[in-house]
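Quick one, probably user error.
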């Protein structure tokens, strides 16, 4: 693994931690209902991003974003555009960031386990 690759993983980790904080800080000016909905969407994104398969996450992002855009943008929902946009983009961004992190952290664990196993096998051969 190169240093550039590791830096990108750290950047993804920072983005996954900072993005919810920024969105919820901006959401203080929204109505309490939208703020609660954003918290629930973040919880759903965290659960899906950390515990679902990559293909499932991709399909959930496509389907749920389409449904959310259909209801919020095409339906008759009276709320400011900034609140609608926040409700639409929160799930795909957070679920994607956490999926990337989970994939690379598990990859690191597998690689480190292989290195330990290969060292142990080398020591038993010697």
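Nope, works fine. Designed sequence:
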């Amino acid at each position: 693994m190169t240093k550039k690759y590791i830096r990108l993983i750290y950047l993804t980790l920072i983005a996954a931690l900072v993005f919810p904080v920024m969105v919820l800080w901006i959401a203080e000016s929204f109505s309490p209902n939208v703020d609660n909905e954003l918290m629930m969407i973040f919880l759903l994104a965290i659960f899906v991003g950390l515990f679902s398969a990559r293909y499932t996450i991709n399909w959930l992002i496509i389907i749920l974003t389409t449904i959310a855009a259909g209801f919020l943008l095409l339906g008759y929902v009276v709320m400011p555009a900034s609140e609608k946009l926040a409700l639409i983009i929160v799930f795909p961004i957070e679920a994607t960031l956490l999926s990337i992190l989970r994939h690379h952290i598990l990859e690191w664990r597998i690689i480190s386990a292989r290195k330990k196993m290969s060292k142990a096998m080398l020591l038993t051969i010697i």
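Residues 28 and 35 are 7 Å apart (CA to CA).
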